[in-house]
């Protein structure tokens, strides 16, 4: 008799596993604790004991939990390769980096778990999603600061930094100067041009 009640497997999921129902192949995967292997619902491998089964929403969750894909039903082949998945997330960030991009939101958009997203992103991009976003925002801020029309706070805001103090601190930390100093440093060349051969 088990003392702890394990997470219940939905009846229709368990039924899908029992009947090798292909209709659920895109819905979930199941791992078998005793073998460390995960399968598609339709896999015709030996019926696992129900108490050994755990359900995963996608292949990454199963891989992340330490399960190996079944050689028979090849469950990881059903999904995008991880590198491609990460690439799609990065592309999304490239377009939306000025918007709030929490790990939770990214996970929802990319249909993964925040934990695996963080882990895989870092593996393929060498930076976390938030570091990736920060880099894009700082580059955008630099670009905006080069124009004289925006205040430092506004340039930060438009680049995606909601908090001006944080923007200035981060800018200084990564660039070795404040946004204001950066702007001033951009000026001499431009000023020289402005006072150049205007008489002609
Ligand atoms: Zn299998």
UniProtKB/TrEMBL annotation:
- Chain ranges of the HTH araC/xylS-type domain: 87-185
- Pfam family membership, one: HTH_18
Keywords linked to the UniProt accession: Activator, DNA damage, DNA repair, DNA-binding, Metal-binding, Methyltransferase, Transcription, Transcription regulation, Transferase, Zinc
Chain segments annotated as coiled-coil in the UniProt record: none
Cofactor dependence is on: Zn(2+)
Record PROSITE patterns: HTH_ARAC_FAMILY_1, HTH_ARAC_FAMILY_2
Which residues lie in Basic and acidic residues bias regions? Answer: 190-200
Gene3D superfamilies tied to this protein: DNA Methylphosphotriester Repair Domain (3.40.10.10), Homeodomain-like (1.10.10.60)
Segments for region (Disordered): 178-200
What is the protein's name according to its record?
Bifunctional transcriptional activator/DNA repair enzyme AdaA
Its lineage opens with: Bacteria, Bacillati, Bacillota, Bacilli, Bacillales
């Amino acid at each position: 008799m088990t003392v702890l009640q394990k997470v219940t497997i939905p009846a229709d999921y368990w039924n899908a596993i029992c009947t090798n129902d292909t209709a659920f192949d895109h819905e979930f995967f199941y791992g078998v604790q005793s073998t460390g292997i995960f399968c598609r619902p339709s896999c015709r491998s030996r019926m696992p004991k129900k108490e050994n089964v755990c359900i995963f929403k996608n292949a990454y969750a199963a891989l992340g939990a330490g399960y190996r894909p079944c050689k028979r039903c090849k469950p990881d082949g059903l999904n995008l390769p991880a590198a491609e998945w990460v690439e799609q997330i990065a592309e999304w960030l490239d377009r939306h980096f000025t918007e709030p991009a929490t790990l939770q939101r990214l996970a929802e958009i990319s249909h993964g778990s925040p934990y695996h997203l963080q882990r895989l992103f870092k593996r393929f991009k060498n930076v976390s999603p938030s570091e990736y976003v920060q880099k894009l925002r700082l580059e955008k801020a630099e670009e905006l600061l080069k124009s004289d029309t925006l205040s430092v706070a506004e340039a930060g805001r438009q680049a995606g930094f909601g908090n001006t103090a944080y923007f200035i601190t981060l800018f200084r930390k990564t660039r070795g100067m404040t946004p204001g100093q950066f702007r001033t440093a951009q000026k001499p060349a431009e000023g020289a041009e402005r006072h150049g051969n205007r008489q002609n």
